[in-house]
Amino acid sequence: MVKLLNQHGKDIKAKAIYFFKEAYRLLKKGGVFTYFCSRGVESLSDTDRQLLRETGFLNMGGTVCSVNPPASCLYWHEKTMFAPIIIK
């Protein structure tokens, strides 16, 4: 198994699995789950889709949103971002 590591060497796959499992556990049927996706993409990554399926989510989509982050923002500099929309 390949480990996905962030810039600090932390295993982000394990954190994502925990996060997705907790979201699934806490949501009622029909509940909507979304999260900050820090990659400049227009859809869910194959990895995210796989991890979401493994934790029980089957209805996955999202939308591209226009945003206007301040110049001082440390984590986002683009004019758009992808907002995942996952339904339990």
Which features would summarize this protein structure in a list?
88 residues, three-stranded antiparallel β-sheet, globular, alpha+beta, 2 helices
Mean pLDDT: 87
For the largest sheet, list the strands in their spatial order. 1-3-2
CA gyration radius, whole angstroms = 14 Å
How many extended strands? 3
Largest sheet: 3 strands, antiparallel
Low-confidence runs of at least 5 consecutive residues = 1-5
Helix and strand pattern: HEHEE
Structural class: alpha+beta
Number of helices: 2
Strand content bin: 15-25%
**What share of the residues lie within helices?**
25-40%
The coarse silhouette is: globular
The number of distinct structural domains comes to 1
> What is the straight-line distance between the termini?
27 Å
Question: How would you describe what is shown here?
Answer:
There is one protein chain. By secondary structure, the protein is an alpha+beta fold. The protein has one domain. The protein has helices spanning 12-26, 46-54; strands at 32-33, 59-66, 80-87. It has a three-stranded antiparallel β-sheet, with no helix packed on it. The longest helix is centred in the first third of the chain and has 15 residues, at 12-26. It is globular and about 35 Å long.
